[in-house]
Structure formats: structure tokens, C-alpha cells
Automatic annotation (TrEMBL):
InterPro entries: DNA_glycosylase, HhH-GPD_domain. The keyword Iron applies. This is Deoxyribonuclease I. It comes from Enterococcus canintestini. The lineage of its organism: Bacteria, Bacillati, Bacillota, Bacilli, Lactobacillales. Keywords: 4Fe-4S, Iron, Iron-sulfur, Metal-binding. Pfam families: HhH-GPD (PF00730).
């Protein structure tokens, strides 16, 4: 276990408490939310989710049965609706091959699951890791924009893209719940302190972590 990383998680959890991420009533809703929130804010994604729930109750079969044009209209509030509707159809058709049994899918693909997700239309690295973490219950790290901003402020240089942080963070020793909370804590912290120059006002202002130094050891 990376003790510095775990100490950071504990400090954030003690200060902020449980964030209850990912907020959803079903894993199907999480899948949809993870796609819809791409390149927009959660408020817009939530509007599309509300429309989808009314139309389909988040049933995989009902989602894939929707004509593409109808689906596009339903999810219009979250933007990029043509690309996202295609992604939703492809992902849910894939899920239905396994009767939307997430455990069966995880066990079938094993270590290849992330790559399989990346092969689906509309699933990039961040979305794949979100699905791994919250849908397939694999304790992985999501090195999204807020995470990169956080670790840059903590003293880790050169975090210019998703993989630059992803390859430095190992959550060995974290439970699934802790890994899920860690992502939620980072994003909720980010909404408050990682926009503008507010980090110096946060409870982490004097915390220093350079993950690259550990990489060199």
C-alpha cells in the first residue's frame, strides 16, 4: 500500500465525510450517467437521466429498443446527443449479451475488462475506469481532471494527460468502498477548491505528495 496516498484518503474522508458516490439507484443508471456526463456538467446529465427514466425505467431492453432518433431527443439536454446515443445503444446491446449481469461480465473478461470497455463506442479511459469502479466493483483510480489538478497542487509534476497520473497511482490495499469514496472525495473537493486559486484556502494546502519521487525509488 502507498502510505502517503492512503493518508491523503483518510485526511479527506475525516474532513469531508462519506460522499456516497456514485449517486444512483441502479448500475444501469450509473452506466447511463457516466456516458451522459461526458463533456458537460452533472445538472445537464441529470436532465437526460430524468427523461430516460420516464421513458425506459432504465431497463436495458427498453433502452436498446428506442429508435436512435428518439433516444437522441431524450438525451438532448446533455449535449453531443448523436455520439452519446450511439454509445448508449452499443454499450447496452453489449450488456444484454450477458443479460445485464455485471458480475458475469466481470468474471468473463477478467483482466481484459477495461480493454473491452475501451473498444465500445463512446467509452474513453475516464468512463471505462468509472464503470470499472462503480459498475463492475473493481477498485481502480480515476485520474480525471480534478484528480490531476489535485496532485499537481500537492507537488506531483508533469500531469498533462490521463495516463500521466493513472500510471503513478496504485490503489493496492484500498477496499472497494475506499476506492469509490476516494474518487468522490476528490471530485467534491475539486468543485470547491480546484477552480480558480482556492487550493491555498483548503485543508490540503500544506500537504505535499510527489508520486514521481516514489516512482524513482
Amino acid at each position: 500500500m502507498n502510505q502517503q496516498l492512503y493518508a491523503l484518503y483518510q485526511k479527506m474522508f475525516q474532513q469531508m465525510g462519506s460522499q456516497g458516490w456514485w449517486p444512483a439507484d441502479s448500475k444501469e443508471e450509473i452506466v447511463l450517467g457516466a456516458i451522459l456526463v461526458q463533456n458537460t456538467n452533472w445538472q445537464n446529465a441529470a436532465l437526460s437521466l430524468k427523461n430516460l427514466k420516464k421513458e425506459t425505467e432504465f431497463s436495458s431492453a427498453k433502452i436498446v429498443a428506442l429508435p436512435l432518433e428518439k433516444l437522441q431527443e431524450i438525451i438532448r439536454p446533455s449535449g453531443f446527443f448523436k455520439n452519446k446515443s450511439r454509445g448508449i445503444h452499443e454499450v447496452f446491446n453489449w450488456l444484454l449479451r450477458f443479460d445485464t449481469d455485471f458480475i458475469k461480465i466481470r468474471d468473463y473478461y477478467g483482466e481484459d475488462l477495461r480493454n473491452e470497455l475501451l473498444n465500445l463506442h463512446g467509452i474513453g479511459e475516464e468512463t471505462a475506469d468509472v464503470l470499472m469502479l462503480y459498475v463492475f466493483d473493481v477498485p481502480v483510480f480515476v485520474s480525471d481532471t480534478y484528480a490531476r489538478r489535485l496532485f499537481t497542487n500537492l507537488g506531483t509534476p508533469g500531469l498533462s494527460n490521463y495516463q500521466s497520473l493513472k500510471r503513478l497511482v496504485n490503489l493496492t490495499g484500498f477496499t472497494l468502498t475506499e476506492a469509490q469514496e476516494f474518487h468522490g472525495l476528490i471530485d467534491e473537493f475539486g468543485k470547491v477548491f480546484l477552480k480558480g486559486n482556492k487550493f491555498s484556502d483548503s485543508f490540503l494546502a500544506h500537504t505535499k505528495i510527489n508520486l514521481r519521487k516514489e516512482e524513482e525509488i
